[in-house]
Amino acid sequence: MPRRAVDDRPAYARIRNARRAVEDRAEAYALLDTCLLAYVAFIAEGRPMTLPMVHARIGDTLYIHGHSKTRIVRDTDGIPLCLTATRLDGLVVARSGFHHSMNYTGVTVHGTGRLVEGVEAARALDAIVDHLLPGRSAEVRGMTAQEMKATRVIALDIEEITMKRREGPPVDDTEDLDAGGWGGVVPLTATLAPATPDAHTGDVPEPASIAAARAKFAQGGLV
Q: Domain for residue 1, yes or no?
């Protein structure tokens, strides 16, 4: 991410509390790559919409997909999109309700939706599968022509990206500290539980992609 003042960004991409801004694109990309879920906002029929989506990043482009008849991919070619991904790290417990908070790291991406087809779409779909389970696209059969026809892929070329982080203990007022009481942080952790095979698996061993997912998400990103 090029070094520049937060105030140089377009108004919609500015961070109110500049002290929480993270000006490192590599960190922002790492968070996008290790968050299972993102939320995509767009305008449909004059109304704001936000939907949870599985995403994948290839270079400076994010990809989402869905059935060809769903609004989020059917109606977003050429319109502004906003994607956010957040990792929650802890509950911040203060001595007043006003100062309670959460420790988190979040990324917001702005860009314009772009319909992709052919080789780029196939590559993006493999990347989305591998985002969840690294290497899984090589373990399963390829998509059929009918499946490809029913699927629509939208690219979000990153035009603006902002990252912010809140960390550390609560920031209590002096009079609240003097009054006493408990304050601190309750860490949040999430891991992938042991896999449960379905009735058709039989003696087939667990695929390597599941172990790869456990390693990938061991540092968070599930919440």
A: no
Contact predicate 3/25, CB 8 Å: no
**Nearest by Cα to 165 from 34, 75, 58, 31:** 31
Between CA 13 and CA 10 the distance in angstroms is 5
Domain interval for residue 163: 6-219
Give per-residue pLDDT as tens, 156-179: 999 999 999 999 999 999 999 999
Domain membership of residue 22 (yes or no) is yes
**What are the C-alpha distances in Å from 6 to residues 11, 31, 136, 159, 161?**
10, 19, 39, 15, 11
How does pLDDT run across 121-166, given as a tens digit for each residue?
999 999 999 999 999 999 999 999 999 999 999 999 999 999 999 9
Cα distance between the two ends of the chain: 25
Distance CA 71, CA 143 (A): 22
Rounded to whole angstroms, the Cα distance separating 32 from 175 reads: 40
215 beta partners: none
CATH code for position 129: 2.30.110.10
